[in-house]
Specification:
This protein is α+β, with helices and mostly antiparallel strands and about 90 residues long. It has one domain. About 15% of the residues lie in helices and about 20% in strands. A two-stranded antiparallel ribbon has the order 1-2.
Length: about 90
């Protein structure tokens, strides 16, 4: 085993001009404000790698105006797109 200290990786000093970046808008209400939300998935003990039931939070962003989770985040997380029912429930609680 080599115990010699390794050199730190060089830091990339790249600056990005965000004025050229696209501002995401809600697909439903076109708001540009989003908040962190979580989708909670339950994994059965049968398919869990530990053999025990697991609760897994998946972080997504939801619109602050209408609570819709943009489809790009749903697809990226490998989730189904039927979260509209969840959004309408959240709206009645506000």
């Amino acid at each position: 085993m080599n115990m010699k200290a390794s050199k730190p990786l060089p830091q990339a000093n790249t600056q990005v001009d965000l004025s050229n970046a696209e501002t995401m808008k809600c697909e439903q209400c076109e708001s540009t404000l989003f908040t962190t939300s979580y989708i909670i998935k339950r994994i059965s003990a049968i398919v869990s790698p530990t053999g025990q039931e697991a609760i897994v939070p998946i972080q997504v962003y939801s619109c602050e105006g209408c609570s819709k989770v943009p489809s790009i985040f749903i697809k990226a997380a490998g989730l189904e797109e039927n979260l509209e029912e969840d959004s309408s429930i959240k709206q009645t609680l506000i």
